[in-house]
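Hello,

I think I submitted the 4'-phosphopantetheine job twice by accident. Can you confirm which output corresponds to this input? Input:
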Amino acid sequence: MKSAVYPGSFDPVTFGHLDIIERAAAIFDELTVSVLNNTAKTPLFSVEERVNILKEATKHLPNVKIDSFSGLLVDYAVRNDIQVSVRGLRAITDFEYELQIAQTNNKLSGGKLDTVFLTTNLAYSYLSSSSVREIGSFNGDISQFVPEFVVDMVYKKFGF
Ligand code: PNS
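Support: Only one job matched these inputs. Its output is below.
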C-alpha cells in the first residue's frame, strides 16, 4: 500500500490545499494530511481547530486521514510507515524553498522519504493562507478562497 503525507500549516485550509488533497488522494492508497504543531509561530487557529476544519472539509474523501505532528517530518513519516511527502507548487517562487526541504528530508531520512510535487491548479496559484488571514482581518471577502464554514470561523477570530 502506498501511503503519503501532505504536511503543512493549513492556517486555515484553502481551496488550493483542498485541490491538492483531492488529487493526491486519487494517486495514493492512503493520504494523511498532517498539521504541523509549530511552537515557534502563533497561528490564527489552534492545531485542534485546524485538524477539525480539515476533517470537515475532507469528509467526502474515504482514504484521507487527518492528523498533526511536532518535530521533524521525516521522523513522523518513518514512525507511520509513510514513504512519500506531497507538496503543492504554486509558482517558481515556491520551488527553491520546496526543493531545499525535499532534498533535506530525503537526506535526513536516509532515502526513506521522497517528495512528490503537484502543481497547484492555476485557479488557485495566487492563493495562500496568509492572504486569507490578512483579508479576513479587514473583514474582506474570503468566500472564494476557503469553504463557507471556514469563512465564518475566520471572521469570528477577528471579531466580525
Ligand atoms: O504549510 P507550510 O507552513 O508551508 O508547511 C511547511 C512544512 C510543515 C511542510 C515544513 O515546515 C515542515 O515539514 N516542518 C517540520 C520540521 C521539519 O521536518 N523540518 C525539516 C525540513 S528543512
